[in-house]
Amino acid sequence: MAISRDWLLADSPTNRRQAVWGRRYRLWLSLRGNPLAIAGLGVILLMLLLAVAAPLLTPYDAGAQHLENRLAAPSAAHWLGTDELGRDLWTRIIYGGRTTLGMVIAVVALTAPLGLLIGSVAGYLGGVVDKALMRITDIFLAFPRLILALAFVAALKPGIESAVLAIALTAWPPYARLARAETLQFRHSDFIAASRLTGASPLRIILRHIMPLCVPSLIVRVTLDMSSIIITAASLGFLGMGAQPPSPEWGTMIATARRFLFSEWWVPLMPCIAIFLTSLAFNFLGDGLRDVLDPRER
Amino acid sequence: MLVEIENLRIAFRSRAESFEAVRGVSFSVGKEKFAIVGESGSGKSLTARSLMQLLPGNAEVSADVLRFDGIDLRGASEKTLRQIRGRRVGFILQDPKYSLNPVMTIGQQIAEAWREHKGGSRKAAMQAAIGLLEQVKIRDAAAVALRYPHEVSGGMGQRVMIAMMLAPDPELLIADEPTSALDATVQAEILRLIDDLVSARGMGLILISHDLPLVSHFCDRVAVMYAGRIVEQLDARQLHQAQHPYTQGLLACLPSLRHPRARLPTLQRDAAWRD
Amino acid sequence: MTGAVKRGVSTLGSLLLTLFGLTVLTFFIGRVMPTDPVLAAVGDNAPQAVVERVRAEMGLDQPLYVQFGHYLNQLLHGDLGRSVLTSNSVTSDIARFFPATMELATAAIVIAALIGIPLGVWAAVRQGSWLDQSIRVICLAGHSLPVFVLALLSLLLFYAVLGIAPGPGRQDIIWQDMIPQVTGFLTVDSLLAGEYDAFRDALAHMAQPVCILAYFSMAYITRMTRTFMLNALSGEFVITARAKGLSSRRVIWRHAFPTVAVQLVTVLALTYAGLLEGAVVTENVFAWPGLGQYLTTSLMNADMNPVVGATLLVGTVYVLLNQLADLLYRLCDPRVK
């Protein structure tokens, strides 16, 4: 079946594929009406592009030191100037984007499926399993994210892998709670009962029916959380607990350049702007997605 | 004439399109009991609310004439409207579960309505509130006044609503489906109560409902609304002489104990009725 | 047992269980996770004899559950171990540093509530207007900035460029150790001692970190107030109130707002906990001698006992605050009775 706009927007879809894609297209049209969300999406795509194509966008090496040219102001040769060891700032920022986005993707890849599984299992099975899992979730939620992440990183060795693991350990509880809340809504529905009557095992019901239904609100939550993860990662870097120098992570860059705040202020400021723009973009997109996927929350 | 409305139009705007929910409604009401009957979506509630300008923000209201007691309500200032609302026109909503403030006691809510328009001390207002609760035939009024809305039944909640709206002694009462959320046994009681109070106080009444036989017992005149228009206005006693096919269809669908039929007829809608 | 007492007992049981879980988690972080907890406790350069002694002291040759038992026992006696860096007991260190953080957090939340709640109500009442949109954007910006970025920018602008704010630290050198400690809150203590110059000095130093923390809390408080109010304003009882002829102000503040007031208490409790988190980096930037500074300094020196102790404290405070908020909710909202 040819994919055309009419096919997608047909009032009565003839097959499942058409219905699913039609719905996705309608959501996309809704989202497109929100200028801030589209701006956010644009910025994120741009960041991704910059991160992926980093080596092509700059002639400099992220680690190459030129001490004779340290703390240079922005110029034609160095678009954003150089840092305290003479490294080109523009290069370090886009390579830093790689680090940051890599960390975020790693965290989400670890936590979203885990949180989703724990939440759906707790919501579906109920009883003792539910109580136990939710108790564990509550315990993790009792600590502010940064403080718990700091504690974890302190126990392991400071570095990117520890930071990712630490953030992941603090990021999964909200997803579990969300998945559980969504599951509780569907648990007693007729179609679940029908599935059970045909002999489907609980695992199959959870995997095939319940988890997919939780995905839309999870996507919204993940997008909104991204900015929080970026900020936590940067905070860890700032405190020296995340990516270690000379790795070009934005938070770490700010920490090492901190003492030049009052003189060569652009050196710590550029990574600040990078963090701000990326977080803001994710927040705009997440807000837009929430308006589209869950309108009653506006 | 208390209420004069001519060519009332209410439209809702959303992004690109505009939807007209009320398309040119005209009627007038004096010191009588007037009913507006129609199905869901006919625009009857909106018409009633437009008189008090209590429509949601995205509604666009226009009319050739929209008057209460000679006062032009179109584009009236908030000050003018506030002098009419409550003091001269009372408004009863459908479901007391939602229409009463959940965190204020019943007595406080009624006393507030009293004090706003009649002044006086808090104590006097509370006494008056208890008196009003007795007027709507609630036993143990003093105890009920201390309770919260979720602690009383639907029927009692609706009585509270009536008491609250009658506190400032208005001239007109608008009741928007006052019995639709209640049990069948309680419905007639509440309507009878409204009827008695309105008659005793010499007020006008605009009763909105979807229940044709119910309103025909209590009201003097009936207007039938369909798809945003009034299709027929007639005396309540002359309903059986209705001309418009929609009204005739509605009457024909009613089951009757005196004239039992093997099969109830269904309403066949004609697209021409929309015009 | 009446229903209320039964509920109280079960809540208490639940609370204790959660607190117990907190200790398990912190034990895990402090003893199980590090590759060698002994080295974490005594530092890399300790001589072998010390290492062996501490290993025996810490009971690391014992099975895990025995170790946990010791840990729990110590906790119940208020012993959080000793800090390698300060050589004091962690408990006394925390008692010294925590009031400074609380001073910041309390001032910040008061300001954030006083400004944020009316802003949220306003934004809800004028939904869709440019005022509402700008408030939303300001709040969104608050969620998109790390606390330390704003702290650094504030230092740059108000201290370096404009020169109107004092530098980092809690008070000027001349006032150090001059004010007798009564509450631990410098502002209160200097007032109690009658030293108005010291009071002004303390306030001036507090201004920047408090404003920054207040801004971040405000972002959350305003957004939640707006959401709650939008919900409340769409209720039928609001139409009733308007139909009664009440003024807009009365409808908003005496009818709609009270229905959300209790929910806001929970929001404030959550925000306070979030403030403790924000304090960690803010204290770092402003050299504020509070719990956050204590935590980060210990972190950088791999001094695990303070880290675990401070983390446990923050978690406990959060759980207790939440429980308090829940209790207030039950007591104040007539619908829940």
3D structure, described in words:
The complex is a heterotrimer of chains A (298), B (275) and C (337). By secondary structure, chain A is mainly alpha-helical. Chain A has a single domain, classed as MetI-like (MetI-like fold). In chain A, 72% of the residues lie in helices and 0% in strands. In chain A, helix 5 (89-125) packs antiparallel against helix 6 (127-141) and helix 8 (160-186) runs antiparallel to helix 10. The two termini of chain A are 37 Å apart. The model of chain A has no long low-confidence stretch (mean pLDDT 85). Chain B folds into 2 domains: 31-55 and 77-88 and 170-274, 3-Layer(aba) Sandwich (Rossmann fold); 97-168, no CATH class. The two termini of chain B are 28 Å apart. In chain B, strand 8, helix 8 and strand 9 form a beta-alpha-beta unit. Chain B has a 6-stranded mixed sheet, sandwiched between helices. In chain B, strands 1, 2, 4, 5 and 6 form a 5-stranded antiparallel sheet that branches. Chain C is mainly α. Chain C is built from 13 helices and no strands. Chains A and C meet through helix 6, helix 7, helix 10 and helix 12 of A and helix 1, helix 6, helix 7, helix 11 and helix 12 of C.
Mind telling me the CATH class of chain A?
A: Mainly Alpha
Say which CATH homologous superfamily of chain A is assigned.
MetI-like
* End-to-end Cα distance of chain A: 37 Å
Largest sheet of chain B: 6 strands, mixed
Strand fraction of chain B: 25-35%
Could you tell me the number of beta strands of chain B? 11
Annotated CATH architecture of chain A: Orthogonal Bundle
CATH H level of the largest domain in chain B: which superfamily? P-loop containing nucleotide triphosphate hydrolases
Q: What is the radius of gyration of chain A? A: 23 Å
Q: Which parts of chain B are unreliable, with pLDDT below 50 for 5 consecutive residues or more? A: none
